[in-house]
Amino acid sequence: MAQTVTGDVAQTQYGPVQVRITVAGGKITKAEAVQAPKGGRSDQITSASVPRLNQAAVAAGSAEIDAVSGATYTSAGYKKSLQSALDKA
C-alpha cells in the first residue's frame, strides 16, 4: 500500500522548500516539491532544478542526492525536507 508523506518546510535564503513523497514497498515511488522558491530568477532555478531533484530522490530512494548545480540553496532545502518526510514514512 502506498503512503504519501509531506516533509517539514525547510527555509532557504530564497524561500521555503517542502517535499511530498509517495512510498510503496519501502521505496520512494514519487517525489514532488509542494513549495519551492518563487519570483524573479528563483522561478527559473526552481523550474530547472526541482524536476531533477524529484528524479534523483526516486532513483536514490533516500535523501542522499547530489545538489543541482546553480541551485545550491534549493537543493539543500529539498534534501532537508526530503529527509524529514523519510523520517515520518
How would you summarize what this structure contains?
The chain is 42% helix and 29% strand.
Summarize the SSE layout with pairings.
Elements: E1 3-6, E2 10-12, E3 15-24, E4 27-35, H1 41-60, H2 72-88
Antiparallel strand pairs: 1-3, 2-3, 3-4
How is this structure best described in words?
- It contains two helices and four strands, in the order ββββαα.
- With 89 residues, the chain is α+β, with helices and mostly antiparallel strands.
- Shape, per Cα inertia axes: globular
Number of strands: 4
Helix content: 40-55%
Could you spell the SSE succession in H and E letters?
A: EEEEHH
Which runs of at least 5 residues are low in confidence (pLDDT < 50)?
none
Tag the structure with descriptive keywords.
4 strands; four-stranded antiparallel sheet; 89 residues
